[in-house]
Amino acid sequence: MSDALASLIGALATGGVRIVDLTQPLEESTPVIDLPPPFAASPGVSIEQISRYDDGGPAWYWNVLRFGEHTGTHFDAPVHWVTGKDLPDNTTDTIPVERFVGPACVIDVREQVAADPDFLLTIDALDAWEQKHGVIPARSWVLLCTGWSERDGREAFLNIGEDGPHSPGFHVDTVRRLAGDRDVLGVGVETVGTDAGQAGGFDPPFPTHTLMQGSGKFGLASLCNLDQLPPTGALVVAAPLKVVGGSGSPLRVLALAPA
Ligand code: 23J
Ligand code: MN
Predict the structure, then answer these.
(1) Most buried of 26, 77, 96, 158, CB within 10 angstroms?
(2) 7-56 per-position pLDDT tens digit
(3) What atom in ligand 1 is closest to the CA of residue 248?
(4) Nearest listed ligand to the Cα of residue 158
């Protein structure tokens, strides 16, 4: 066995490494992105019982699940956006599995977001983070810790006003650098989608989806517990369902973090 794996197994046994669950519960009340007309809506979650130790199955319990691919804590594949539609290995079943695992760079902007729900991570803010914690390595997950997962209920979580949703995200220049120079695996956020609430009106519209998926990168939305991770040093595993031709899927996202 490799030394690295042996020491990981040892650390897991002795509590030197913690497993942090970055996943929100998936249930019928899970909020789903609310696109304005004329765009087609994604359905909510429905969970229908097949049997529960009854006439339909005396010794077994199981359910039928129904939800859109982009529901709850979920993965965005490159094919999700038109800019990524012709890239190789762009669907949930064809992405090389090595790309589901990588180090986490966690950028804590909870204070800024508490003061401004439309906060965007600028290039200057990214520079400041790198000055302190080092340059974001290639093939890492960049996770934006906004505190948004603590918002309770659909209304507070989606935060939709007269002029559309208000929630934090990335400035277009920042996404360009992360997808380009930094060559990350993808970005992860606590909000319903990887783009800021107001990003439909940005240039280009939805820049995070446009640029990340357009350069073969991924998205993780509706994460939680990012406040339990160090800025660097954790490892994230985020593997979507192997749906053939899938644009994404709900998934369990786990981080291995120093105790
Ligand atoms: C479709 C259209 C716009 C957006 C999204 C989906 C998502 O956020 C998503 O879940 O990928 S912004
Ligand atoms: Mn999505």
Answers:
(1) 77
(2) 999 999 999 999 999 999 999 999 999 898 899 999 999 999 999 999 99
(3) 11
(4) 1
